[in-house]
Amino acid sequence: MISEADVPPSRGNWGRWGDADERGAANLLTPQRVLDACATPRRGQALSLAMPIKGSTSGPGATTVPHLHGRPLPQHFMSIDGGDYAAGARKIKGEMSVADDALIVSPHGTTTHMDALSHMWRGDKLYNGHSSDRVRSYGATRCGIDKVGPIVARGVLLDVAAHHEVPFLDGAVRIDAQLLESTADAQGVEVRAGDVVLVRTGFSTVFGDDPARYQDAQPGLDFSGGSWLVDQDVVAIGSDNVAVGALDVGGTFHGSVDEDIHMLTLWSHGVYLIEMLWLEELAASGVHEFLFVAAPLPIEGGTASPLNPIAVL
Amino acid sequence: MISEADVPPSRGNWGRWGDADERGAANLLTPQRVLDACATPRRGQALSLAMPIKGSTSGPGATTVPHLHGRPLPQHFMSIDGGDYAAGARKIKGEMSVADDALIVSPHGTTTHMDALSHMWRGDKLYNGHSSDRVRSYGATRCGIDKVGPIVARGVLLDVAAHHEVPFLDGAVRIDAQLLESTADAQGVEVRAGDVVLVRTGFSTVFGDDPARYQDAQPGLDFSGGSWLVDQDVVAIGSDNVAVGALDVGGTFHGSVDEDIHMLTLWSHGVYLIEMLWLEELAASGVHEFLFVAAPLPIEGGTASPLNPIAVL
Amino acid sequence: MISEADVPPSRGNWGRWGDADERGAANLLTPQRVLDACATPRRGQALSLAMPIKGSTSGPGATTVPHLHGRPLPQHFMSIDGGDYAAGARKIKGEMSVADDALIVSPHGTTTHMDALSHMWRGDKLYNGHSSDRVRSYGATRCGIDKVGPIVARGVLLDVAAHHEVPFLDGAVRIDAQLLESTADAQGVEVRAGDVVLVRTGFSTVFGDDPARYQDAQPGLDFSGGSWLVDQDVVAIGSDNVAVGALDVGGTFHGSVDEDIHMLTLWSHGVYLIEMLWLEELAASGVHEFLFVAAPLPIEGGTASPLNPIAVL
Amino acid sequence: MISEADVPPSRGNWGRWGDADERGAANLLTPQRVLDACATPRRGQALSLAMPIKGSTSGPGATTVPHLHGRPLPQHFMSIDGGDYAAGARKIKGEMSVADDALIVSPHGTTTHMDALSHMWRGDKLYNGHSSDRVRSYGATRCGIDKVGPIVARGVLLDVAAHHEVPFLDGAVRIDAQLLESTADAQGVEVRAGDVVLVRTGFSTVFGDDPARYQDAQPGLDFSGGSWLVDQDVVAIGSDNVAVGALDVGGTFHGSVDEDIHMLTLWSHGVYLIEMLWLEELAASGVHEFLFVAAPLPIEGGTASPLNPIAVL
Q: Chains with ≥3 Cβ pairs under 8 A against C?
């Protein structure tokens, strides 16, 4: 467990952001690794790995994006828009019009997001021994998403679905260490300390045709798979399923508490999870090593941030 | 005005995202420029340029972050937290706890954000001739923030406050072309096509001591300053004030409609604006050229996205 | 169509609230009728006719209340609560604790509510000829729910399900004038000018066991039933289904535009609709005439208000 | 303290709503008192006692309604409106248009509302000994606003401002028992068990001209005034200030914990508070005894409900 680091807080005047003992594996992002990551791109192509946030409440759009059953979907409202001017609203300075909007979002289970280390814990201690009493209605004053800072790292794609030569893995597939290693070997990539590893299941493409299947069992990491990645000292693990770890029938987390992927990563090792990725264009590119950038919104005390992760090929 | 481009849409299956005629200056991000940008960092240090999103409604936190008067401030709620477990809530699998949250945010005027090209327009046409009738209550189906895609570019800091040897510029300062050029010369940087240019006024530091001063006149670009940047074919202009352009007494946009900075940039040239940046650590670093990454949330039809822009030094 | 009335606006200093030409059938609430309504109760028992607003987002509660498919369900958040004190939050004046909360609600289709006259219209005119251009992103400046004022009226229950001796009517039942009249006769009540008439289908009880059935065809008024009530000069019609009028298979409004219940009531005659009532206790009471009170929240420009309608028996 | 009552729960099938030991002084609403209340009106005029909910975020409306400094103001959004049709949106059945909306509201300190008994407490016990651990992020499972049910009572106006012959009382005025009694005497009214007493200060009219004055010290009840009302066995106390009790300079609650009005009423005696009333039309009517109806929204676990209280004269 990381307890100290000499990475300076990047903006101390806004409070405790960047405190090393709350940043977990983000402390692995040494200057050399950041420079190495920036040297990875060969094509100069930047890809978004996010699903769209469809928040209109006057149509079915929001329900067409992969999500867990019963979660509050994003809501997007315009407080002034072009329709208002069409209906006669007065303009600014006579000719200028403005549109303005608001977003309501509960990231977990509804959209591409990154978990904070305060998202899950065991007993009464968060990651690194911080008290869970610090996670209150006004946010997590320990291990919030505002403590993470920018993730600029070498990204590695382990495309398990492609390795199995299927468009998506079945909900019963549990991705173990051996499968990760064989995928890496077959795809000619090596996982290194400080990497962000993206595990593609293809399961995000299931929702469109069969929402009920998506909202039940999902393919994902099992404990051995998660352990293998943690042992490589990765910074974060991302996947195109809901929980990085597998879901059993009924949509529950696979594994006992001792072998739970969230416990293993977020709680024991401070390794971040990036969930509900969209990896189809990245997979189609055939590129497996790239510059990965994640810039979670510095929501004070947030347990997650909606995210638009970027792969630069 | 850019009307065509051969950058392929990065995720056509989610709809029209990436359509070149709605992306404006983001089309300038050619592969070579992306690669050049990635080659810029020397230190391997990644800095966030965002202000925190303080959304607690049970304390004054939200009111302590720079914002415009009367705007709805961010609200952050926990739907389950550590306090609930302290009060006896039942855990998952017996020992695991989870915290979950929701965010309500109206980005313009309240937090660090990037404007979409659909944010402002003149007459009944958006950027590039798209009809303003496309901007409706369910979002902008033309030129929404979901059309931008990732911004990976060479970043340049023009630190006007430092050039004037003041902690912040007075609200009456109008940054014209000459001042930008003399700042660039003095700081040894050159603005190139495809750059993102960050103009530091230092004015974001005024709010803490004097909110009323912050919410009145602000230093910022005038038309000649904006024109000079647009003429260099920049992708985006960012600043640590509210509107990139200057605000006159009373907080209104400086300049006539013909010389309005939002009209010049967003509407006429498709140049993006990134507002309410926090540039103090970047300024302190003394680095003026860097890799700049902005990954706006792909909010379908959004007029903006809250943003955590990254400078990699 | 009512176009004038001499009921004085009750709070002119807050603006136009109470303007007679936007109040529709609420103008029928003459002083004598209000006094007669108050003289109706015999038992001194006040019953709520609302369904609960279950807004917790950390459990399935919100999904257990009858609602239309795909609508954004209520969200209820605590900004400070007892759990926070259990976890060590500092109290007020040393010993006092406070809990505070927030509600997000889209009333139509999710909870008991009253429609404003601006909720639906035909062509480009609202009720009474007001322009539909007045209904904009910042609310309806004509015929908003803030114009209604208190509804204090004689209430009449027409319990069609009881008349048919079933717990609830099938989704295929269309309640016509004849069925309303025979129900009234059988139950010994008379509908008078100025009444609020509640039509019980029992269909709200279907949701618990069979949400999909609830979200498909629903029993309700057909055009002849609606016309008969409108012809009696009622102030409002309430029902325990979603739309007062019947829904056809697939959940669409029954009837052509010319025979649509929303058009007939809200738009043509300014008769209010109160939807998604909970009428089970009222039905069990056996009382068919009562004092009815509805006090919609004066949401400026709202198209509806969540409502707790009261029957005083 | 009321611990038992034989008022039957009005809707047990929705859960625990109406449990007598969580309803406090609402148990005083016996059938006879309800009938007596209904017999009070003489004029047949129904008045709203609520301030408008101005939630538009594209203009300053929301800031013009009396509120506490720093509270999140109501937000009202349209998800579809007349402007959209003016801009070309497709209609229903060819000719019908619909407008739909959403409301975000934090009632305390922002709008007319009624406090639940779970809003404030002392030590670790709510009203009537219920554990404060029951008040969690997903709402108060004891003493929530959903437990109150309808308030149908005799209403009494004690117009202290009129008694002092001023448009509004100064912020330094503390309304004690003697002042209440002399007001009642002068205005010829008697406070009885089961009444809802409305205390008019006129202070809500201060906000329009001087928001800062409104948000500082406020006139209101002191402990002797509150005690006198509680001793009369009133059901609820309402006022046109923010907290029923007085606020000292800086906006803090007047009095020690032992003499705090919220503790005395909500916590010790289960007497409800109705705050931020608009009493100007009622005062102008010259009527001091009336039928009072409050129908709080049954928000499960809510600490308050926005409210449109009604006086029937």
A: A, B, D
Q: Which residues pair with C305 in a beta bridge?
A: C114
**Phi–psi pair at B226, nearest 5 degrees:** -65, -40
B143 contacts B267 by C-beta, under 8 angstroms:
no
> Where do the CATH 3.50.30.50 domains begin and end in chain C?
4-53+110-312
Given the DSSP bridges, would you call strands C272-275 and C236-239 parallel, antiparallel or unpaired?
parallel
pLDDT in tens, C141-189: 999 999 999 999 999 999 999 999 999 999 999 999 999 999 999 999 9
Q: Provide the b/e sequence for C69-100 (b: ≥16 CB within 10 Å).
A: ebbbbbbbbbbbbbbbbbbebeeeeeebbbbb
Count the neighbouring beta carbons within 10 Å of the beta carbon of residue C216.
16
Q: Which distant-in-sequence residues (6+ apart) come within 8 Å of A124 by Cβ?
A: A131, A132, A133, B85, B86
Strands B174-175 and B75-80: unpaired
DSSP assignment string, C207-235? TTT-HHHHTS-B-EE-HHHHHHHHHTT-S
Chain D residues lying within 8 Å of C137, measured CB to CB: 58, 77-78, 81, 83
A-chain residues within 8 Å CB-CB of C88? 133
CA nearest C99 in A: which residue?
A137
Please determine, for residue C252, whether its predicted confidence score (pLDDT) is greater than 50.
Answer: yes
Inspect the interface and report whether the beta carbons of D136 and B83 lie closer than 8 Å. yes
Cα of B176 to nearest chain A Cα, Å: 22
A238, β-bridge pairs: A198, A274
Residues in chain C: 313
> In the predicted model, is pLDDT for residue B2 greater than 80?
no
* ipTM above threshold 0.90: yes
Give the integer Cα–Cα distance in Å for B222 and B258: 12
C69/chain D closest Cα distance in angstroms: 15
Nearest-CA distance from A307 to chain C in Å?
21
Residue B219 makes CB contacts below 8 A (sequence gap 6+) with B160, B168, B169, B170, B171, B172, B173, B174, B175, B201, B203, B241, B246
Residue D61 tokens read as: 């409306």
Q: Summarize pLDDT for D152-178 with one digit per residue, the tens.
A: 999 999 999 999 999 999 999 999 999
Chain C residue with Cα closest to D144: C99
Write out pLDDT tens, residues B155-206: 999 999 999 999 999 999 999 999 999 999 999 999 999 999 999 999 999 9
- Tell me which chain A residue has its CA closest to the CA of residue D56: A79
The secondary structure element, H or E, covering residue C120 is strand C120-122
Which residues in chain B have their CB less than 8 angstroms from residue D62's CB?
A: 70, 72
Chain B residues within an 8 Å CB radius of A59: 138
| C235 in contact with chain D, both atoms CB, cutoff 8 A | no
Classify the C-alpha dihedral A298-A301-A306-A311 as positive or negative. Answer: positive
pTM: 0.96
Whether domain C4-53+110-312 has CATH 3.50.30.50: the reply is: yes
What single letter denotes the amino acid at residue A114?
M
C311 Cβ contact partners less than 8 Å away, ≥ 6 residues apart: C46, C47, C49, C155, C282, C287, C290, C291, C292
C88 neighbors C80 (Cβ within 8 angstroms): no
- A84, containing H or E segment: helix A82-86
CB contact under 8 A, B57 and D78: no
A-contacting residues in B 166-185 (Cβ below 8 Å):
none
Among D104, D278, D307, whose Cβ lies nearest the Cβ of C104? D104
Whether D71 contacts chain B with CB within 8 A: yes
Instruction: Decide if B256 touches A, using CB distance below 8 A.
Output: yes
d(CA D183, CA D199): 10
Residue A52 contacts residue A65 (beta carbons within 8 Å):
yes
